[in-house]
Amino acid sequence: MSGFHDRHEGLFDTGELEDKLVLVVGCGSVGSELSMRLVRAGVRRLSLVDFDEVCESNLCRTVYLARDIGRPKVDALAERLEEVRPGLQIERSAVDLAAVDDDKLAQWTASADLVVAATDHPGAQARLGALSYHRKPALFIGVYAKGTGGEILFTLPDETPCYPCVLGAVRGQDAPGRGQTDYGIATGQLAAEPALGIDILHVTVCAAKIALALLLRGTGAAVEGLVDPERSVLFVGNRAEWIWTEPLQTVWARASRLDKCICRIAPGGSTADLLDDLEHVA
Predict the structure, then answer these.
(1) pTM for the whole thing?
(2) Which residue ranges form the domains of the chain, and what is each CATH number?
(3) Which of 91, 102, 116, 259 sits a CA distance of 20 to 30 A from 19?
(4) What is the 3-state secondary structure (H, E, C) of the chain?
């Protein structure tokens, strides 16, 4: 009888992923697919955070099924993942991140081995970046308008620039837009942007491989070569525009630390200190 990891033989020590905890904030088109890729690779422990419910329009570009419509995304996603590998340890929080205080969110990030920020809310991404930076490795994924491409950046405590530094550099280079803010939502969450599921999946699969590299860092696995603190942002293109000269091209880039940013605050600074100056992220 074959085993779950038989076709991973020789690629990495599968036992290294068994006890890793991944915090996934945002279980939409990116977060749901990325979680599925991690589980299929061998991750058994996840903490899922999303306040939303599955709707019909989600079905064209997520892991959800018609029978999931109306259910909390965290519950539906946990069930889909369990169907792939029974016995997973999955924590579910069907809450709006805005309702989670900073101390609680800091505890969530500190307890995880990897933080995945896959929300469609710039403020939430920045907050996760601030609270995770001095604590744990983190991965931030954004898909550009109409699925033209996306950005994936990772942070390592005190080794890389932080999320605001990298995003500030990107925004200064005329990057494609992240979609329009839904003026009907007081929180500033981005409106759902039309994009082919396959274009979003291209960005997500690249992010999933970087996530595995972060989780396997220091184990000698070949995939960990993706993690180089000297270049911590990957631009994934679906079309030949902006910095991409060919369709389906990827480009690694470097970013410098801003003069005043959370990654220049000494570890142990208060939550208020970390979140005090994020206006350059918007």
Answers:
(1) 0.89
(2) 14-275 (3.40.50.720)
(3) 102
(4) CCCCCHHHCCCCCCHHHHCCEEEEECCCHHHHHHHHHHHHHCCCEEEEECCCECCHHHHHCCCCCHHHCCCEHHHHHHHHHHHHCCCCEEEEECCCHHHCCHHHHHHHHHHCCEEEECCCCHHHHHHHHHHHCCCCCEEEEEECHHHCEEEEEEECCCCCCCHHHHHHHHHCCCCCCCCCECCCCCCCCECCCCCCHHHHHHHHHHHHHHHHHHHCCCCCCHHHHHCCCCCCEEEEECCCCCCCCCCCCEEEECCCCCCCCHHHCCCCCCHHHHCCCCHHHC
